[in-house]
Structure formats: C-alpha cells, structure tokens
Amino acid sequence: xxxxxxxxxxxxxxxxxxxxxxxxxxxxxxxxxxxxxxxxxxxxxxxxxxxxxxxxxxxxxxxxxxxxxxxxxxxxxxxxxxxxxxxxxxxxxxxxxxxxxxxxxxxxxxxxxxxxxxxxxxxxxxxxxxxxxxxxxxxxxxxxxxxxxxxxxxxxxxxxxxxxxxxxxxxxxxxxxxxxxxxxxxxxxxxxxxxxxxxxxxxxxx
Length: 206
Description:
Layout: E1 4-8, H1 16-24, E2 28-32, E3 43-46, H2 52-61, H3 65-73, E4 78-81, H4 83-86, E5 91-92, E6 98-99, E7 106-110, E8 120-128, E9 143-149, E10 151-155, E11 161-167, E12 169-177, E13 180-183, H5 191-203
Parallel strand pairs: 1-2, 1-3, 3-4, 4-13, 5-7
Antiparallel strand pairs: 5-6, 7-10, 8-9, 8-11, 11-12, 12-13
C-alpha cells in the first residue's frame, strides 16, 4: 500500500498544518492540483477554509470534481476537513445554491445565530455516536477540538453521523459513508487528539 497522501490544492488555504500533521504521522505528502497525481496515492485529503461556492468553482476550473468522484467510486479513502467536509455534500446554500461532490447525502446550511452569534469559533466538545469506528481509536469521547465555521452539514441519513457537537443546535461534527470521512473542526489545530484523528484516518484500509 502506498504511503503517499494527496492533499488537494484547490486554493482554499489552510494547508500547511494539514501537510505537517500527515508528515508527522509518517506519510509522504503530494500537494497538487494535477489529475495525474491522483493515480499515485492511497488516500485523498480535502482541506480548506472559506466559501462553498468558491471551493466548487475552483474544483471545476481545475477539472478535478469528476476525478475526485471517480476515486471515491473506486474505493479510495477521502477525508474532508472543514470546508473540505462541506463540499462532500450534494448542495451548499452559501452565497448561492452550489452543487457539491455528492459523496455523502445532505445539504450545507447556515447555523442558527441565537443565542450565540456566528461564526462558531473556538474549542468545543465532540460527542462520538459510533465509538467503535476506527477513526476514534485511542481517543476519548467528548474531548474538545477547534472549530471555525458558520455553516453545517445537514445529513440526509442519520447513519452517516459519527459525532455531534452543540452550537445553538446539535450538528454533525464528523460524518462518514463507506471510506469517505468529513470532519467539521480542524484536527490539525486540535493538539494531540486532532493529530491522532488524522493518523487514524491515514491507517484506515491499510
């Protein structure tokens, strides 16, 4: 099994800490927007901060949307972080209605802004729904992780929710369908537990 991990470069920022976390876990990183590089790796990571529509516009301009979908269909594990998690959905409502990758059923919607004002920023507890999932190996339940977002992934299928958090509403903070995972918070900025989550994902299907 290849130890090379593709971090997709689709110009959404927030990549340095992700790349460092993967290297610390003992894997080689390819940071690229070239389709040919998708064929030489074992897993894909979609990082990112910012707007849903911008992210999808970038993937379309780079002609990467279909390539990512094809990799998922072939069984390649994919991890979406923050914005990268949100674009795994069918649609996003930020700025305008945008089509996502459609890898996990659901839509991305704005969080309620009361009683706490948006965005959801800072440390918050993550409650595991499926504690036996390999992603949670050697991580205690209800630990704090670092969030920054104003939208959430409204899953069509509750069985795709691995963990939840609370900010005005209870929302999915980790989702999963098959070998596709999405994490709403930033594990790469969440100290040892976050780094362990990334390591656990990288070991999936090895």
